């Protein structure tokens, strides 16, 4: 009986590294853009809350459109939609650069510039969700068991590495005469090169493969989520990613309020916190998982515990370094648990359910950063430890649930 072991490993020799490169590129582009947008927004006189709203709108577009791609990816094959995601990235970056240039030239007023930027940014939310779903389904089709867990953790590490590199190189790309257009145009050029590389490294699905995956009875995202063996892991992921988004999008405000006037500037401390958190997640995904060959369940339990501990440490001490170190410890936990729940959900499903599972995981990535950070920011105005307390409760509840309740494997 044929297995995925030898043949799949040979075929995946370049596919998985290339997928890692795609994720790394989009991460440095997206997070790099986040790091320079405050300066661009101030230059264009766009209110701060509208600048933040651009990314929330893109995330909402990502979440809403994720279920749309389930059957379509099955018909055309995942490589087609991964290329579609790269095209969305290129158009989004290039188009955003054009809208900023029109704003700087005075041809568009600030509000119109914001509108154009938001619409062009949402193009990546639309096509990026398709690419993320296609990537997850391609991994599921070419790996099995421990190999799949390792592959998912490896790609998550590429994402973490991109979040380190992006904010570091984006400011250096704001060179004369391009100025704020530099990062966006530079990332668009990298996207074009990666799109060209996709024709060399991504597999072309045969007509038979597409026909098989496009069965009329392919499970939808909703039906996959309702399966207890899968839905429990997806629920874990939704809550865990919401906790991470709460930490990520409020840590800057916390550091600003906790930084003493005589210490390093708040912006420097925010950079230290963000970089340390990203490195911690990378060490978890490329270090601990590979070294110990952890199972998805062990990754989820350990990750939830560490996330809870990090948030408790930051909540109980109002020192700025407690916030930074607590954020780093929590990030290490999230770095373990995120690929853990993705692998657990994928391994719990059948071959026909993989695209639906991938779509659900893509939806979680967008939905978790659309509402929870806003709610946590509002709670922060009332009680400053609130974001850490909320995230700690979520982490503790998830850990308790996975310690007490047995794992369901085969319910249909």
Sum this structure up briefly.
The protein has 16 helices and no strands.
Blueprint (SSEs and pairs):
Layout: H1 5-43, H2 48-65, H3 70-76, H4 78-104, H5 110-142, H6 145-169, H7 181-201, H8 207-213, H9 221-226, H10 228-258, H11 266-292, H12 296-316, H13 320-348, H14 354-367, H15 372-382, H16 386-404
What does this structure look like?
This protein has 412 residues and is mostly helical. Helix content is 81%, strand content 0%. It is built from 16 helices and no strands. Helix 10 crosses helix 15. The longest helix has 39 residues, at 5-43. The two termini are 26 Å apart. Mean pLDDT is 82; it is low at 1-11 and 206-214.
Descriptive terms for the model:
single chain; 412 residues; mainly alpha; 81% helix
Output mean pLDDT: 82
Main β-sheet, in a few words?
none
Distance between the termini: 26 Å
| Count of DSSP-assigned helices | 16
Order of helices and strands: HHHHHHHHHHHHHHHH
Class from secondary-structure proportions = mainly alpha
- Runs in which pLDDT lies below 50 for 5 or more consecutive residues are 1-11, 206-214
Name the beta content range: under 5%
Tell me roughly what share of residues is in helical segments.
over 70%
What would the principal axes of the Cα set say about the shape? globular
Over the alpha carbons, how many angstroms does the gyration radius reach?
Answer: 21 Å
